[in-house]
Amino acid sequence: xxxxxxxxxxxxWFLAKYNRPTDVQDQGWAEIARGTHVLxxxxxxxxxxxxAFLWSLNQLITGEWxxxxxxxxxxxxxxxxxxxxxxxxxxxxxxxxxxxVERNVxxxxxxxQTRSGDTSSSDRQKMVRRPPEILITTxxxxxxxxxxxxxxxxxxxxxxxxxDEIHGIADNKxxxxxxxxxxxxxxxxxxxxxxxxxxxxxxLGLVASFMGGxxxxxxxxxxxxxxxxxxxRSVGRKSYDLTMLFPESEAGEESRW
Length: 257
Hints:
Blueprint: H1 8-18, H2 23-32, E1 37-41, H3 48-62, E2 72-75, H4 79-102, E3 112-115, H5 121-129, E4 134-137, H6 139-146, H7 149-153, E5 160-163, H8 173-189, E6 193-198, H9 204-212, E7 229-233
Parallel strand pairs: 1-6, 1-7, 2-4, 2-5, 3-4, 5-6
């Protein structure tokens, strides 16, 4: 079972809450746990975000990735989505912590913060002094952080970068802004795992190449070597229970409209 690669209590919590993994989670965790770069596509509501985050949470919980600095960087082109992701991530984190505490098992302090153009300068300074383990931001904010010596330092331990809604910017200048920032980050932190998410990305292979980029070359004579990216396509189908309701009316059917 794919969940066997997780901490036993993480596995127990997941099964108690969700019963079983979705198709994209089942396929995705098999690759993510191996450290593979992946591009996952699945319908909205199929658990893509948790598929991307849960292995990182597991690594932070078990201490494989020590805390005290940014280990997971989540990038989305939408500030509103970033705030939603933070809320949706804090809930399972709290549940996992309670699950561990109830069983007298130590649980580390895992902090989740967002950074955007709306973040105050005082909050940014606090973030530099005490970086979160999971940082949620935008491509533009990441580029600004990479030009600041203090902010750049807290990204030096990045282990995973999650690229959400990648279909929305892969074909425009924001996509260039995004991927150039990601490549600049490798010069600071070294290689890290790249996880792309989308519900509608097409064509998969081309976007995967864009997301993966190339390994740094030792000399200008060496041919560029692309980073391999595994493609995860969900084969699951969503079912809908649709009910149509009409108000009762004595004036005839036309009155409804």
